[in-house]
Structures are given as structure tokens and as C-alpha cells.
Amino acid sequence: MRGGNGANEPDRIVVVKNEPGDDIYTSLRALMRLRYSARGFSYLPHQPVRSLLNGRKRSRLRGRGLDFDELRHYRPGDDIRTMDWRVTNRTGKPHVRVYTEERDRPVMVMVDQRLPMFFGSRHKMKSVIAAEVAALTAWRVLDVGDRVGAILFNDTRSLEIKPTRNQRKVIGWLGDLTAMNNELSVAPGHNSNPAGLTDALRMLERSIGHDYLVVLISDFHGWNDAALKTICRINQHNDIICSLVFDPLERDISGASKLVVSDGKFQLEIDPERQELGKKFEASFESSFAHVQSELKRHQILVMPVDTVTPVSRQLQEKLGGQRVLQ
Asked: Do residue 171 and residue 82 come from a single domain?
């Protein structure tokens, strides 16, 4: 669905069939090009002051390298290079600085490409935005030297890709993601599967062990208690970020006086003001949107709303980089 941009023309929603362009459907070239925008944000535990991740309890995941753990008395066999001479001189007793080796942190991204994601009012489809969040995340993770894998799912199937540092394999699953994205259609026979979210989460739970970073990218259509329980089980031994994708028109439909829905052949015009359809639509969306957020936050799971209008790289830089990005 796309909105009209005419100066004197009311905003409209149009559902289109397969057409070229990175706003309706993404492409592998577009996702690869995002590598040059995957900077200015981080999924590491240490965050800038204004980052969405700042202020949370210390992550179980430390990234790679060495991290200071404690200062203690020297013991026979300790490496002399770890001696803290300042403390030793001050106390008169030898002290060493103890470091723990930081563990590799595999990252799994779970990307929703079901029919409800095939929606967008002004700029891009939610399905395209989800693909871009996944690509930017993958490129950023590779850039810091960690492994990244994926669970890709639509209304009919799911794909599991094990975490890897191999760039060619990452490009391979970005190609699979592109193919899923380009299969989206409102033609007869393409039906939504609300249970797909829970099924994909269960696949994710079976696929990972402990100490992963999990990035869930979806509009969370089909949210239920089973999905919440699965996320909570995963969260017991892993860190989770829920990228909740939404379109502004879903929250405020009042600006569209006429809506035109099309399958590429036939069109249907809807007046949102008739029988207060617009208010009912907004109320339904806000209720489900707020419910998902409150349930996740109640279990201390980070929620990162992502809209379909602002460039994804800018949103990640502002929310995970703690910086304001000028237009």
C-alpha cells in the first residue's frame, strides 16, 4: 500500500502488485548497499548516554576482547605484566589486575515477511523496513567481528541460517530474505498465517543456546500468550531486542480522507469517516500495539519501535547510537 503525494490530492492507500523499486519490494543490491550505512550504532553492552540500551542491567554478553574483572592480591604464578604498581606502592602489598576473556557473541535476527507486513502508506512497506533492519544489523555485527545468523519466515515457510562470520553466507541469506520479500502479494491465494510468529519463535528457541543476542523484527501480528512465553524462555539466557515495525497511518488514519485499496486490477474506495471506521481502526491498532509493548516491557524485554517513514539507518543511529542525526 502506498500513499498519494499530489498537492491537492487526499492521502490514499494503494496495494500494488509486483513492481520494481526498493519502496514496495527490496532487492539484494539494496540490502548490500546498506553496508555503507551500518555505522553510528552498536549492539554492544557499553552504550552512549542517549542510547536506548543505556541504563539497562549489565548484559550477560560482553562482546570480544578483554574486560577488567577485579583487583586482588598477587598469587604465585600470576603474570607479572598484570601487576598494578600504583596500588602495590600505595598499600605496600603486591596487587594484580584480573581480566576475564570476553566471549564471542553470536547474533540471531528473526525477520517477519508475512502478509500483514506488506503495508505502507507514504514511503516504504513494513516488509521492506524489516529487511533493512536485518541487513543493517548483519553488516554491523560482521563489522565488529561477531557471528550473525537468521530465522526468516513468511506465511508458508521458515528458514534457519546458523550464525557465521562468512560474508558470502550472509549475502546468501540476504538473498533468501529478498526472495521472500518479493513473493509478497495480495493476489488471491495469499493468506495470512497469524500462528507464523509463534512457530518462528519456537524454531528460534530450538536453534540457539545461551548468550546470544536476538533481534526480533516484526509487527508482531498474531501476538498471543504462547509467543510471549516463548520469548520469556529465550530471554532467560539471552538478550533480546524487539524491533516493532509500524506505519504511521496505522496510528493516525485521520489524515486520509479517502482510502483506495487495490489488488492491481480492481480498486475499492473506502471513507474512514463513514460509521467511524477510521476511529475503530486506530483504536484497534493502538490497543494491540500498546498491549505488545507493555507485555514485553513488563518482562524487561527491550522494545524498539521502527517506523516506515524515517530512514532505518537514522533510526538505529538515534536509538542505538545515542545521537541525533541531522537531515
From this structure: no
In tens, the pLDDT along 209-259 reads: 888 999 999 999 999 999 999 999 999 989 999 999 998 877 655 555 555
Amino acid at 105: R
Q: Reduce the DSSP state of residue 138 to 3 states and report it.
A: helix
| pTM for this model (two decimals) | 0.74
Count CB atoms within 10 A of the CB of residue 96. 20
**Helix, strand, coil percent content, the chain, rounded in steps of 5:** 35, 20, 45
Cell numbers linked to 84: 598494578
- Count of domains for the chain: 2
Q: How do residues 298-311 score in pLDDT, each as one tens digit? A: 998 999 999 999 99
What range defines the domain where residue 293 resides? 28-57+104-320
What's the distance, Cα to Cα, between the start and end of the chain in Å? Answer: 26
Check which CATH number belongs to the domain holding 257 and give it. 3.40.50.410
